Amino acid sequence: xxxxxxILTPAMSVLSATGGIKVDHPKMSNDVVVLVAVIIxxxxxxxxxxxxxKVGWLFAPIVLLxxxxxxxxxxxxxxxxxxxxxxxxxxxxxxRYFRRGGRDGWTSxxxxxxxxxxxxxxxxxxxxxxxxxxxxxxxxxxxxxxLLAYSGQAAYLMKNKEHVSDAFYRSIPDSIYWPxxxxxxxxxxxxxxxxxxxTFSIIKQALALGCFPRVKVVHTSKKFLGQIYIPxxxxxxxILCISVTAGFRNQSQIGNAYGTAxxxxxxxxxxxxxxxxxxxxxxxxxxxxxxxxLSLLVELTYFSAVLFKVDQGGWVPLxxxxxxxxxxYVWHYGTVKRYEFEMHSKxxxxxxxxxxxxxxxxxxPGIGLVYTELASGVPHIFSHFITNLPAxxxxxxxxxxxxxxxxxxxxEERFLVKRIGPKNFHIFRCVARYGYKDLHKKDEDFxxxxxxxxxxxxxxESMMEGCSDSDEYSLYNQQTDRSRDFLLNGNSNTxxxxxxxxxxxxxxxVPAAKxxxxxxxxxxxxxxxxxxxxTDELEFLNNCRDAGVVHIMGNTVVRARRDxxxxxxxxxxxxxxxxxxxxxENSVIFNVPHESLLNVGQIFYV
Length: 606
Prior knowledge:
Elements: H1 2-18, H2 20-24, H3 30-46, H4 52-55, H5 59-80, H6 92-101, H7 103-107, H8 109-112, H9 131-159, H10 167-170, H11 177-208, E1 218-219, E2 228-229, H12 231-248, H13 251-280, H14 285-306, H15 315-344, H16 349-355, E3 362-371, H17 380-386, E4 391-404, E5 415-420, E6 427-435, H18 445-466, E7 473-474, E8 478-479, H19 481-490, H20 500-506, H21 520-547, E9 549-559, H22 566-582, H23 586-589, E10 597-605
């Protein structure tokens, strides 16, 4: 629904703003208004690649000027036409309104809903603003200015009932009409920009949670992590937005669609907030009940009203939401099935150990990075590869990139390294972890940091084997000053922050702590032996890296079984296959050069 809001908000806001042209020129065709709105929308979406950081520096002044203008115009109209409209703040009048209007009065709430929609778009992506800024802005600026603006329009309509269809522009004094029109158009662009940015943010988070096909995500700001740009989604939003604007051609039906989307978003947000209050904040059940009752009382009232508008344009956000829901569900289903296949078909360690140090093949110079979604075990792609080719690289690293359901993973905790099998096998596992707000390093830093952490692991592993627990290292995952200095001086390209994250990975292979009765000579000779072993392995790894790095990726094709239901065949064989075809390849995401990429294909049926 929020994605649908990102389509409807620009259409509604820009078309409403440009409608002021026709008020000043009544004989102008509606086609001209639509054409102007489409031109503004194309310009708005074309600016997105510059990022909010570049185009947003005018947002705050424009929004502030806009609210001050509509508030000032409202005060002017109240003073000029009829100040008695302020009595409408009494709840008695809404009771009389419903008693007099009956069902028509109730269904009119769907239109009344539009008086508050749009204000939430100003802060749609809350990651850009602190909580205090939102609270102060809504309390001291947005809310009072909206009350004054609509009260002023009511006062104007008391004397000019024939202008009810375009009361806002009619109520503007002639001397400031065009300046207000320009500010209104600029404010519509601001609100549209906010919802577009929020759509990008939601797509990014859904992508990180495996609920959306892989798309290119560009971070447009070095200061603010939440400011992103997704080219594919941007152009899809533009096409859909222009289609809605040109298709409906009037504000009424777009308004019905817009109101439906916003009400459902508010309703779902309240239900999710209940879960947060219960499970995260652990609020008392009485507070949760009061909040839920008061919120749902208002929102369900408006929701029941917009249901009458479904056939008058309200179906649009429902269709958009359903389309995105199908895409997200099918993609998530296919992704989960692929992961389950890899989990069930992974190779046991006994099979690897039975092959011997050479894995039963020729070990050629170089490092093979085998990408897999498994954080444990040997993936089926590896056995599929070595049973069809007679050679494997001297060093094999299973690389697993995981997106965790957390905001961000600190850089010092990003890589986890572990050895698989004996040392002479030279097989490792590296798990790279990212939060849903983290940007995967698409440049050479990823490979560089991977090898830095691999070398750090070998150095740390050797140090733990060559020193006593009371001297160089604490068994409770804490470094001593001497061990930290050793690591820093031994490798200037790595930092001490990378050490703690590999400690837990090697706990299972650390030998038992040496007895305190050992002599210093024993410790010294053991340390010298481990240092020599460490130097030999680091030199071996460096030589293999110089010989070449090959990225081995699996290309698993998912197919529905022949006895599957027809809807499952459509979802898997057509929709999921189409999404896999148009989405970004893993090789592009990991920035793997084509000359060092090796795809291993396999098919499985679900």
